[in-house]
Write a structure and sequence with these properties.
With about 450 residues, the chain is an alpha+beta fold. It is about 65% helix and about 10% strand. A five-stranded mixed sheet has the order 2-3-1-4-5, with helices on both faces. Helix 4 runs antiparallel to helix 5 (about 75-95), helix 4 (about 45-70) runs parallel beside helix 10 (about 230-265) and helix 12 (about 300-310) packs across helix 13.
């Protein structure tokens, strides 16, 4: 995850001469401000220092990411990101010692490691998005870079060509990873994954600017020249190394926090909300003072299922019921496991007729499951309904009480039935209607 294509210029003898001349002049720069020559001199930072600084930052970030993976091994992406930073650090270190080691090692191997680091980091983005990692993404950019470097005899001395080849490879991989992150965020919205995509696009823009400068400004990539562009680019890349590592860890942490919050609000067995999650959702509904229907659904003779078919069959019945109910919730409906084999459904905006229609559809679908289940225990459900205005939490409690009374009447009538009561006026009151079959609805 680093810039590529040669190293930054060292200070040459002519630079030192200009510096000495400036320091011995009659006017002190610290009194009148820096001139253009002084600014250029300050911006022409030592190449080895720049690349070593980038390598050191990558080692720190990569080490932290590997440690984070060792603490929580469920996030494979974090391991890939850590390996990418450490691999890139080796590549940056080789570029830093270009004047010391042979060009084949410093230029070719160093740049190859940097391209490989970018590919591994992109693979980490894919893994974080819970998608299959493509081997092509890992191998193709490296192959293209090596072919380009090894097929041109003068590549080791052509800094502009190095910059262009590596820029194309790195930009293509980072752009692909950014697009992948954007698409994944449409399925699972994470604020910091959006930030990760933004950093990746910034990196692509930086690489593009460096490629353009290598063509239009020859000194920008000339290791024996003098160009502030190289120093500025290196400092930007240093910032990006730190930023991308931090944002990756923040995105991972955001997902962990979200999963923790979901586990605290959801029933682990069925995936429905638990009572704590139901309370949060109802509180949001009460703030809108919306009309709603409450359905209490209870599996008939659930204890008999556990006793005769076993607890696994009972667990399967709970999951089957939630699977039957979910398609009937609509866009705003709420499903929660209220306790044991009892579930609560809240349908905002529904009147009594709509609520009864939903309840009957659920009861019929459960009967269809019971008739078609050859290897699992069949079951039926009884449903109590209450409709009212959700203007405060106390109103919801009254609706629950009314729905519970209606559920009791459904059980007393022979089970596999739907009954409805009104929450108006406080305690619910169920009144019989003549003559009522198991599926009839009773209202007050």
């Amino acid at each position: 995850m680093f810039d590529v294509g040669g190293c930054w210029p060292d200070l040459r003898d002519d630079d030192v001469t200009r510096t000495e001349a400036a320091s011995t002049g009659p006017v002190r720069a610290d009194l009148v401000g820096c001139g253009a020559t002084d600014v250029d001199q300050w911006m022409n930072l030592d190449a080895m220092t720049l690349w070593c600084t980038i390598a050191a930052a990558a080692i720190v970030i990569g080490g932290l990411q590997v440690v984070q993976f060792l603490i929580n091994r469920s996030e494979t992406a974090m391991l890939l990101w850590g390996i990418a930073k450490l691999t890139g650090a080796v590549g940056a270190a080789l570029l830093a010692v270009r004047e010391i080691v042979p060009d084949l090692l410093s230029v070719t191997v160093g740049n190859a490691l940097i391209v490989l680091a970018v590919s591994i980091d992109a693979a980490g983005v894919v893994a974080f998005n819970v998608a299959k990692i493509s081997r092509t993404v890992l191998v193709l950019p490296l192959v293209v870079m090596l072919v380009g470097f090894l097929s041109v005899p003068t590549i080791n001395s052509d800094i502009a060509m190095q910059t262009y080849i590596n820029g194309v490879c790195v930009s293509a991989v980072l752009g692909w990873a950014a697009v992948h992150a954007h698409r994944a965020n449409s399925r699972e919205r994470l604020v910091w994954r959006r930030g990760l995509a933004a950093v990746l696009w910034t990196w692509v823009a930086t690489m593009g600017a460096r490629m353009v400068s290598s063509i239009w400004i020859p000194d920008a990539t000339n290791p024996v020249g003098s160009s502030p562009v190289q120093s500025i680019t290196a400092l930007i890349l240093l910032a990006l190394v730190v930023m991308i590592g931090v944002v990756e860890m923040l995105a991972s942490r955001e997902r962990v926090d979200r999963k923790l919050a979901q586990s605290l609000r959801h029933d682990h067995q069925t995936g429905a909300l638990n009572r704590a999650g139901l309370a949060v959702e109802v509180e949001q509904l009460t703030s809108k003072a919306d009309r709603a229907a409450v359905l209490l659904i209870d599996i008939d003779d659930f204890k008999a299922i556990n006793d005769t078919a076993g607890h696994l069959a009972g667990d399967a019945a709970l999951v089957d019921l939630t699977d039957v109910v979910r398609p009937h919730l609509g866009a705003r409906g709420i499903l929660a496991r209220f306790g044991g084999d009892e579930f609560c459904v809240v349908i905002p905006g529904a009147d009594l007729d709509a609520a009864v229609a939903v309840a009957e559809a659920i009861r019929d679908d459960v009967n269809d499951v019971r008739r078609s289940a050859a290897s699992s225990a069949g079951f039926t459900v009884s449903i109590g309904i209450s409709v009212g205005e959700l203007h405060q939490t106390e109103a919801f409690d009254r609706m629950l009480s009314s729905a519970d009374g209606a559920l009791y009447e459904a059980k007393r009538s022979g089970r596999n039935a739907v009954r409805a009561c009104s929450a108006a006026g406080g305690r619910a009151r169920a009144e019989s209607t003549p003559p009522a079959s198991a599926g009839d609805v009773m209202s007050s």
